[in-house]
Structure formats: C-alpha cells, structure tokens
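Ticket opened by: R.M.
Priority: normal
Category: complex prediction / small molecule

The reporter submitted a protein together with zinc ion and asked that the result be attached to this ticket for the collaborator who will pick it up next week. Submitted input follows.
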Amino acid sequence: MKRKFCLIAVVIAGSVAAGLSYYVNSGSKADAHIISSYVPDKTYGNAGIGTEKSSGELLEKPLKKPSENSHDISREEEQSDKTEEKINISECSIIVDDVEYSGEFTEPSIKVMHGGTALKCGTDYEIEFDGKTDRGAGKYYFTVTMTDKYEGSIEKSYNVIPQRVSFSSVNTRVSDFELNWTASENVDGYEIEISPNSDMTEQETLVIEGGDNTSYTKTKLPWNSTYYVRIRNYVYDENGTEKIYSLWGDIETVSTKQVEVIDGVTYIDGTLIVNKTYSVPEYYGSGLDEDALGAFTEMADQASADGIYLYIVSGFRSYWTQYSTYNYFCSERGISQADRVSARPGHSEHQTGLSMDINSTSFSFEDTPEAQWLDENCWRYGFIIRYPRGKEEITGYAYEPWHIRYVGRELAEELYNSGLTLEEYFGITSRYDY
Ligand SMILES: [Zn+2]
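Result attached by the on-call engineer:
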C-alpha cells in the first residue's frame, strides 16, 4: 500500500517541482505525510484525472476538506501560488560536527536534513558564519536561512575543540606517580582520568584549572599497582560556564614501584633500601658486598691514577657495632643530635655491606680534592653520595661527603644526572616511627 502511494506521489511531484523529488524518493512515512499536506491544492485534480487507479489514501485526505474540494480546478490553480505551504525550518534537523582546532579557522561540516534527506546548500538554504576569525577553540555561531521551498532561519552553534594532548612522560615512585605534559596554548585547564582498568571504568577524574599547568602528581597509592591514565584539555565558552573539551589523549599505563620485603629486608625495584623508615633485621649482613667492594677497588685504582688516594675507613658494621656507635652519639649529644648523624641499630646502611665511609668522617674532608673527586666520579663506578648537602629533611641525615652507597652503575648514573636522592627517586620517606 505504501509503495503504491509513493508511486502516485512521484507522478504528482513531477508536475509540481523538481525539488520535491527529495521527499518522494526517501519513502518514509514522515515524507508521505508531507507530500500529502503539501501537494493537494495544486495537484489533487491532476491525480484524480490522470490516475485511473487512484489511491484511497490520497483521495481520502482532500475529501475531508469539503470547502477546498468544492472549488473548480481553475480557481484552485489561482489560489495555489498564494497558499503554497513552505516547509518550515522547524521540520528540518541541522547536524553539525565539532571541529578540532588546527591553528586556523576551520568551517565545520553542516548538514541540513529533512525527513532523512540532505538538503542542498545554496539551493535549499544558505549559511552565514558569525565571527569567522581565528579565535582558537571555543563556541562559534552560524545562521541557517532556508530558501526556495523552505522558509525560516535559525542560529546554531558548534564547538571548535582544543587540540588533544597526551602525557609526555610519566615518573613512577613507590606510592605515587608524576604525570607530565606539554602545556596547550590558549586552554583554560585540564582533566585527567585515572583508572585501575584499561577500559577507563571506575575512573577518578581530576580537574586542573589553568592552562599553564604541565604536571600532576598522584600520591598515596598502594605499592605494586597499575593504573591507566589519560588527559584532555578544555576551554570555557564565551560565558565562562560551559567547558569545551578536546578529545582524550592516548591512554598510558603507569605502575607504582615494585616493593618486595624478603626476610625483613625491603627491596624497591630490586634495590635494597635502608633508612630511618626501612630497617634490616638484627642478624642481617656479614661483610662488605662483593660487587660493592669490587667497584670500590676499581674506583680507587682509577682515582690513584689521577693522584687521588681513596680508602675505606668504615665498611660493614654489624647491628651490634651500630648499637654501640649510636649509643655513643646519644650519650655525647643526646638523641635528636645523634639521629642526625648516626643510624639507630637496624637502620644503618653499613649493615647492608653496600655502604662505605671514605678517607675521613670529619667535616674537614669536604674541602679536600678527594671529596671533590668522589663527588664528581663515584657514579661511574655505581656509587652515590648517599646524604647530599641540603637534603637532610629528605634523607634524614646531615650532609656526609664521605658516605657512599653502591646502587649499581645504571641507577647511580640516573641519580647523579637527576640530582635526586634514593628517597626522592623512589618516593619514600626516611623517618623513625618510634
Ligand atoms: Zn657512613
């Protein structure tokens, strides 16, 4: 039935206007309705005359309007120009896609649809853009004005969204990670999602106001945990209320450091850690670590070639040796001063066999060529100056230019180049809880 109706409509439309074929061809119910409401005045007579098998549906509609139906054909034709019903823009849908800012103004793709059919720009409607200048990301306006068989105009908006941003680097630590990105130009802020799942469900959303930001650190996370993170930026619309977002950047995977506690000894990403927070058991350790001693020997040989004489004044210290040492400092200076310069038993790096005091534990060592050589070169052999100047709040110890710790060549170089202490690098504390 519907098919037959459409066929008749084609005949009718052909006699009215080529433009109508848009509707006829689509064949939807909505279109059929529009045709019957649009054409009767002008074409009802034709349909009646020219179509032997008249469609009941088409014929019935005009019959419900006796006043129109009683007119003769010539009068109806006269009236048709005056009463021709145009299709109002309110019956059309306007589809506009957001545009990603590219550095210059970009026109969006705009579709004006009527009943499933795309109308033609320039024939059926005109578009006028407002503010067609390079204003960057934001909300833009345009006016659609219908022409020909259509009428009405409407103002619409579309978004020029900011260019997407992704993380440039991610630094992980024991219980936090730092996300870095390059600041986007002319944006008002960023939104970061952190999810335990790769599909970004159960995510936490963080809003960072200010386009100049380039970093965010997420803290207090559990060890050995993996997260998925992504970022997008936004600008406010001209009213300062609605946020216009970029697309999301690439999803990055980020894991906090691997922390293992084996027989009471803590390893972070494989590196043994001892400080005021992390201790070793009383029975742990029996002498200098072989690798550490070998590295020292190599370093001392090289140093002597440079005219620098390095020797170990204190290497391995057992729990009970440290017990005596610490108590000596306590009786001499009191607990708070002792804690600045001497570890409590179980908290001394010397018990690990990985640390050594070189040449002298007197502050006069600081100004010697040996101290300077050690400071500049020990990383080449896998050592770090464990308690640098100005980092007492972080390491828990006053500056000790003589105390070196073996961490292996790779980590030593990374720490030397970054200027970070072990505490900063792994994101850990050094604080007694007793
Ligand atoms: Zn030491």
